[in-house]
# Entry
Amino acid sequence: MSWLNTNRRTDCERQGNEPVNSLVNLRSGAVRTVKELVVISGKGGTGKTSLVASFAALAKDSVLADCDVDAANLHLLTAPRVVHREPFTGGKRAVIDAHLCAACGQCEELCRFDAIQSDDSGNMVYTATYRVDPMACEGCGVCAWFCPEHAIALEPTVNGEWFISETRFGPLVHARLGAAEENSGKLVSLVRTTAKKIAEERQIGLVLIDGSPGIGCPVIASITGADLAVVVTEPTPSGLHDMERVAELTRHFGIPAAVCINKWDLNAEMCGRMEAKARDLGMRWAGKVRYEKAVTEAQVEGKAIVEQGRSGSAKDIEQVWKGLRELLEGAGGQDRASAMRIIA
Ligand code: SF4
Ligand code: SF4
# Structure
């Protein structure tokens, strides 16, 4: 694919900055392996995307993947220049050919999503025909299978759009899912796979993934096979609950996980409890980031917090990143079982 070969040097390299990511030996051109670090949270709004942007700024040479396709916003902090865009066709919907429809009504009876109704438009033979409501159709195919006139076809639908962009941190793969569209898990997989291909092609050793929040299909697609999942949460009872749910998910899928508490100083006592709980759950402690106005100011300016200057929260994030990089490198060259032992 031609877009993989374009612009092999990142904006960062062109500006003369030396990549410091030790996962990649750019001088020799040798890449040991592409590591995938995914940042997730039990719910949206925990500061996950801000952290990913800062990690990207600190890594200096990585491929970014915005897998929060239902509410993508990493582009707001990275000022991407789109170099490639494609429609995303992730699902199918039924379409009735009114000329073939014999108005028997079977499809209406069979559709458990109430997506088919008759109307009075008719055709040359019948006074009524049936139509599919595209917003209600789930593409299950039952109506097409049973239609005696073979009047129903399942047609691919465009559910959104995905992009490859260049940013000051490196390439970014991102997407936009249409309103009320489904198949976000498929789109997440597409974004991740593309980001990894770009990393391999450009010999970049790290893919930073802004994962989907929650514990559903999109987040499973975000974390499956990743080398390390960083769970970002806040020091509240619901943050603790979210952390426990996500811990269960990462353990189920065998993904090493570390916890980072954002805005920890809003409730220091709860933060301490959560750190202890994280360790009980077999998760690594990635660190904590204080609450500061500088974070919001950086967001308003479209910057990563660590680009904003030497605020306390920027220093906290640098510490968190240092620890995460050590975790990733510590697991380098080892199999997943060994990596899990390191994390545990
Ligand atoms: S099952 Fe086929 S022929 Fe019968 S109403 Fe539906 S589309 Fe028309
Ligand atoms: S494909 Fe399934 S959901 Fe869509 S109209 Fe047919 S039966 Fe209903």
